Amino acid sequence: MGLHHVQLTLPPGDEELCRTFYVDVLGMTEIRKPPELAARGGLWVRADGLEIHLGVEDDFRPARKGHPGILVADLDALAARLTDKGVVVAWDDAFPGRRRFYADDCHGNRLEFLGPEE
């Protein structure tokens, strides 16, 4: 088995704010949604083998506990990039063998970023 994508949600009409965070801040690439799905709104992004689909949810509540665990090659560079863009980075050393931190996206969805195994 493999993972095709992770879905997170956003409030109606906030695609542009999401685009700014996921494309401009994180450096991901926007994926064109199929026409039959584009009418629903939302945003799809990709970086390397990771896809995140952000779907519109009328009764939006950010994912505070559930989250994607995103592997990155240079954890310190990403943390510095996020911090420079005003994103709060919370380091957590409770995962043996991995360095990691948490950050919230522009809507408060929790994201976990992990470095290579030590």
Number of E strands:
8
**Helical segment tally?**
3
Instruction: Report strand %.
Output: 25-35%
Quick one: biggest sheet?
4 strands, mixed
> Taking all residues together, what is the mean pLDDT?
95
Structural class: alpha/beta
The sequence of SSEs as H and E is: EHEHEEEHEEE
Structure description:
This protein is α/β, with parallel strands linked by helices and 118 residues long. It contains 3 helices and 8 strands; from the N terminus they run βαβαβββαβββ. A 4-stranded mixed sheet has the order 1-4-3-2, with helices on one face.
Helices and strands in order:
Elements: E1 6-10, H1 15-25, E2 29-31, H2 35-38, E3 43-47, E4 50-56, E5 69-71, H3 75-84, E6 90-92, E7 100-104, E8 110-114
Parallel strand pairs: 1-4, 5-8
Antiparallel strand pairs: 2-3, 3-4, 6-7, 7-8
In short:
The protein has 118 residues and is an alpha/beta fold. The chain is 21% helix and 31% strand. Strand 6 (90-92) and strand 7 form a beta hairpin.
Keywords for this entry:
21% helix, globular, alpha/beta, 4-stranded mixed beta sheet, 118 residues, single chain
